[in-house]
Write a structure and sequence with these properties.
Number of domains: 2
Helix content: 10-25%
Radius of gyration: 19 Å
Shape: elongated
Strand order of the largest sheet: 4-5-6-10
Structural class: alpha+beta
CATH architecture of the largest domain: Alpha-Beta Complex
Oligomer: single chain
CATH topology of the largest domain: Ferredoxin Thioredoxin Reductase
Largest sheet: 4 strands, antiparallel
Order of helices and strands: HEHHHEEEEEEEEEEE
CATH superfamily of the largest domain: Ferredoxin thioredoxin reductase catalytic beta subunit
Number of helices: 4
Bound molecules: iron/sulfur cluster, FE2/S2 (inorganic) cluster
CATH class of the largest domain: Alpha Beta
Length: 221
C-alpha cells in the first residue's frame, strides 16, 4: 500500500497523552461520550495514537487500517464518532472502546465486544443546550440525513430532504411547528412530517432526551 498524505494536522509532534485528553474530552462530550473508565486501557490506546501521530502526522485509530485514500482515512481520524454514530450508540462505545456513552458506568466490561448492532437504537445527536428553541439543525446518523427541531422546548426529528427538489430542510426557516424549505418554500410540520403537497410527507423519527442529550431513534439493519 502506498504511504498516504496526512489527512490534516492538528497536533504538534511533541503532543502528550494529556494534550489528547484535553482536546478530546470536550469534543466527545458534545457527542454524548466520555473516555473509558478503564484508565490503563485509555493510556494504551492514546500511546498508540501518538505513535501514529509521529509516523503519519495525525492521530488515527490504532484498531483500523488506513486505506491511502485521504477521504476514507478521514473517517478513522480519532475521535471518529460522527462517522459511526448509529453503530457506536448500539455498542455503547466506539470500536476500540476508547470512548463510551456518557451513561455507561463501567467501560471495562465493554472492551473486546465487537458484535455488530442491529435494530432500533437511540443515538445521541446534540446537547439540549446546543439547540436553542425555535431552531433546526442537520445531523447525519448512519445513512439517515435528519433535521432536528426544537419548538416550545419539545424536540422533533424528520428527514432533512425536501420532497420537492431535495433541498436541505435544516437550512430552512422555522415558523412555529413548521419548517419552510429554503429553496421554494414548501412547508412541513416538524411533529409528523406532513406537508400540503400530496404524497410528499417526509419521514419522522422518535426523539428522546436523556441527561440533557437529544437522542434520535434509527434502525440499524
Ligand atoms: S474507534 Fe474509537 S479509538 Fe478508534 S478512531 Fe474511533 S473514536 Fe478513536
Ligand atoms: S426543494 Fe424544497 S420546496 Fe423546492
Amino acid at each position: 500500500m502506498s504511504e498516504a498524505a496526512p489527512v490534516r494536522r492538528r497536533f504538534n509532534p511533541d503532543t502528550t497523552i494529556e494534550d489528547l485528553k484535553a482536546y478530546m474530552a470536550p469534543f466527545v462530550d458534545r457527542l454524548g461520550y466520555k473516555f473509558n473508565t478503564d484508565e490503563e486501557f485509555v493510556d494504551e490506546v492514546l500511546t498508540s495514537e501518538l505513535e501514529l501521530l509521529e509516523s503519519t502526522g495525525d492521530v488515527f485509530c490504532p484498531c483500523r487500517v488506513r486505506t491511502g485514500d485521504p477521504k476514507e482515512d478521514a473517517k478513522i481520524v480519532c475521535p471518529c464518532i460522527p462517522f459511526f454514530r448509529d453503530q457506536f450508540a448500539g455498542l455503547n462505545k466506539c470500536w476500540c472502546g476508547l470512548f463510551i456513552l456518557n451513561e455507561v458506568e463501567d467501560g471495562t466490561e465493554l472492551l473486546g465486544v465487537i458484535d455488530e448492532p442491529t435494530g432500533p437504537v437511540d443515538v445521541p445527536v446534540f446537547k439540549v443546550a446546543d439547540l436553542p428553541d425555535g431552531q433546526i439543525r442537520h445531523v447525519k446518523v448512519g445513512r439517515h440525513d435528519i433535521a432536528v427541531a426544537r419548538v416550545a422546548d419539545e424536540f422533533f426529528a424528520l428527514s432533512n430532504v425536501c420532497r420537492h427538489a431535495f433541498a436541505p430542510l435544516a437550512e430552512g426557516f422555522m415558523d412555529g411547528y413548521q419548517v419552510m424549505c429554503p429553496w421554494h418554500g414548501w412547508r412541513y410540520d416538524v411533529r409528523d412530517g406532513t406537508t400540503d403537497h400530496p404524497g410528499s410527507d417526509v419521514k419522522t423519527y422518535p426523539v428522546s432526551v436523556v441527561d440533557g442529550e437529544i437522542r434520535v431513534r434509527v434502525t440499524i439493519r
